[in-house]
Amino acid sequence: MKKNTKKKIGIGCGVIFLLFVVFIIWFILGFLEDKTETRKEMKKIQKEYVTFKSSIESYNTIRDQLYASVFKDTYYNTFKEKDPGNKEMLKEAEKIVKQVATASKSLKKACDGVIYPDVSINTKCSSFSLAYEQVINSFVSDVDAYNKQIDAYNTWIGKKEEQVESYKTKRTYIDYNQDKKYSGKEEVEDGK
Q1: 57-75: b or e for each residue (b if 16 or more CB lie within 10 Å)?
Q2: Closest to 122 measured CA to CA, from 42, 44, 38
Q3: What is the pLDDT of residues 41-53, one digit of tens each?
Q4: With contact defined as beta carbons under 8 Å apart, do 145 and 167 qualify?
Q5: To bridge 147 with a disulfide, which of 83, 112, 166, 178 should be the other Cys (CB 3.0-4.6 Å)?
Q6: At what angle do helices 119-157 and 76-111 cross, to 10 degrees?
Q7: Is residue 13 classed as helix, strand or coil in its secondary structure?
Q8: 0.85 exceeded by the pTM?
């Protein structure tokens, strides 16, 4: 019986050792797979951030043009004539905002709540979050500002002429990074 008990203990220890080895191999394989997936995600973020950054730069360019022609040099005596061109510029800006939103979809998924081992990737995710919120909110602020100008112009002309229609957009202010601040939102002053 002693021989049989030693044999059972030996088999039990062997099975436990084998299970331990299998567990360690499973853990290492899972770790390596996770590491590979993380590298793929980081490469994807690197690539997508370039596209996103390009869209942001395009938006900043058109926003500068918008401010130079729409908000800086707008007078009531030429407002109605310039309105179609101004609205066209707002439409162009909105197209670029849509491009920014499209370029941000994969970044949202890859960056949301994830911390990567590469600091530059974390910086890109943080920068993306802030830039995305700022672009959307600054566009909505610009639309609000232009619509305030339209309201002021319509008040100025009264019933003498046909009223100018507001610019319509489905975009609204967002707090993407959920910091209870709307980055890029500007306080709109009353029009001239």
Answers
A1: ebbeebbeebeeebeeebe
A2: 42
A3: 889 888 989 989 9
A4: no
A5: 166
A6: 160
A7: helix
A8: no
